[in-house]
Design brief:
Blueprint lengths: L2 E3 L10 H6 L2 E4 L2 E9 L2 E6 L5 H11 L5 E3 L5 E4 L6 E4 L3 E2 L4 E3 H7 L10 E7 L2 E4 L3 H9 L4 E6 L4 H12 L9 E3 L1 H17 L6 E5 L5 E7 L9 E11 L11 E7 L10 E2 L1 E4 L6 H13 L9 E9 L5 E11 L13 E8 H9 L4 H13 L1
Parallel strand pairs: 4-5, 8-11, 9-13, 10-12, 16-21
Antiparallel strand pairs: 1-2, 2-3, 3-4, 5-6, 7-12, 10-11, 14-15, 16-19, 17-18, 17-22, 20-21
Helix pairs in contact: 8-9
Length: 378
């Protein structure tokens, strides 16, 4: 079903209040309205009631605190559990947008009178929060001198980190840093940015910058951006021991090794363990599970991982990688590995001696000692 949300404020098919609230929609050329009438309820109007359910779901992305929906006759047609609301200081919110539409700001002013009128969706990030929506309301909160807004915790969205990274590149770290634009300029600049972003053939990965001690710098940067002095990034390595290896302490195991792509920028063609960067918003454990799936096609869980050791790989003075190494038992698929052709040229099962020799070609003695300890207990 094609549901189009109306983003203008002058459309005689809808009431002005609904347009101001961004509750106007078109479905199969027919107008539908969702109008907020209390702090947690709204009325829905439109020709075909069979589409109400899907329309409500889309509306609740922007207004998750609205949990009671009534039809034009006042009958409850859909009810959700109340979302827990928390108060967040404005300075603790990182925007994921950078422009504010002046026309939309004027519309929002018509229904926001105090802090409690603003409820947005956020995801926790260190000791701050990332706003997924409601940026115009946040900007108005700053203009109005509000000290806080209300929010509900949403599930982490992968797209958010890319937008946060772009916002921070523009010097936007709090709601007051966003730029107010005339409507025509907003349309041009925001749409141009989104068109260029989504037209890219390959999605840029973003990661979080840390100090050498592992303290977040509260910066999200593109994976392939130039590295600044003092920047360290989290990385994982997964040592995969086959399920049919002897039990720990009962003999040397067999290990899954992968050969890097022959076109890789670094260490092309080298045999190695599975690894990669921790994306912004991920834990090292989540990154380990993702990388094993992406590179080898194997399904493992966080519970399968055995924390092994941590180390720092220095790059230039003052920059480097903060490695977390995990061990994991994995089943060799009968039909072979489903490898990422972009990152993996080949896969093989190696004895511990061969595995150890390959790993020591690009690691130090301390790494080797830890690897032997892991072999004894994995």
């Amino acid at each position: 079903m094609d549901i189009t949300r109306i983003d203008t404020y002058d459309d005689n098919r809808f009431s002005q209040n609904v347009l101001n609230q961004h509750g106007a929609y078109i479905i199969e050329d027919e107008p539908y309205e969702i109008e907020i009438i209390t702090k947690d309820s709204a009325v829905i109007r439109g020709k075909n009631k069979s589409v109400y359910g899907e329309l409500i779901e889309q509306f609740r992305f922007h207004a998750p605190h609205i949990c009671i929906f009534l039809d034009a006759a006042g009958t409850i047609i859909k009810e959700y559990p109340n979302e827990e609301e928390i108060k967040i200081k404005l300075e603790d919110i990182q925007p994921s947008q950078f422009f504010i539409d002046k026309d939309k700001l004027d519309a929002v002013k018509s229904f926001v009178d105090c802090e409690d009128d603003i409820v947005i969706q956020v995801i926790p990030w260190n000791d701050r929060y990332i706003a997924l929506d409601g940026h115009t309301r946040l900007y108005l909160a700053k203009l109005s001198g509000f000290s806080y807004v209300k929010a509900v915790i949403a599930e982490t969205e992968d797209w958010a980190w890319q937008f946060v990274g772009e916002a921070q590149k523009r010097g936007i770290f709090t709601p007051g840093d966003m730029t107010l634009l005339e409507h025509k300029d907003y349309d041009i600049k925001w749409n141009q940015f989104c068109d260029e972003l989504f037209a890219s053939e390959e999605e840029e990965e973003y990661r979080e910058a840390f100090t050498r001690d592992g303290v977040s710098q509260r910066r999200i940067v593109p994976k392939h951006a130039p590295v600044s002095e003092g920047d360290y990034f989290k990385q994982i390595l997964v040592i995969l021991k086959t399920n049919d290896s002897p039990a720990s302490g009962e003999g040397a195991g067999k290990y899954i090794m992968q050969q890097r792509s022959l076109k890789a920028k670094y260490y092309a063609g080298m045999w190695d363990a599975t690894g990669g960067a921790v994306k912004a918003g991920e834990t090292p454990e989540e990154a380990a599970v993702r990388e094993v799936k992406e590179e080898l096609g194997l399904d493992i869980t966080v519970e399968d991982l055995v924390p092994a050791w941590d180390f720092i790989a220095e790059w230039n003075p003052g920059t480097g990688l903060l490695f977390s190494v995990f061990g994991c038992r994995a089943k060799v698929p009968a039909g072979g590995f489903s490898c990422s052709k972009r990152e993996v040229n080949d896969v093989k099962i190696a004895s511990f001696d061969e595995f150890y020799k390959c790993m020591m070609e690009h690691n130090d003695e301390a790494f080797g000692e830890e690897l032997k300890k892991l072999e004894a207990r994995l």
